[in-house]
Amino acid sequence: MNNKTRKELAEYRDKLEEIKANIESLADEEQEKFDNLSEGLQMSPNGEAMQEAAEAMQNITSSIDEAIEGLDELIP
Length: 76
Fold this sequence. Notes:
The chain is mainly α. The protein has helices spanning 3-35, 39-42, 45-74. It is built from three helices and no strands. The longest helix is centred in the N-terminal third of the chain and has 33 residues, at 3-35.
């Protein structure tokens, strides 16, 4: 792999870090909204959807972490 490719991959890695941070922030906000609902509202369809969305965003950040780790292995 040449230096140009390494540099591009490093830029993509940095972008993934930024995207991950943004998604983590949104997941935290969604989780906080859910946590602030009464127990009855948490059990409602809307509450359950909020919880599922927060969990899905957390799963996405885990996947992004794996992609970042893969890039780190390519670009020492």
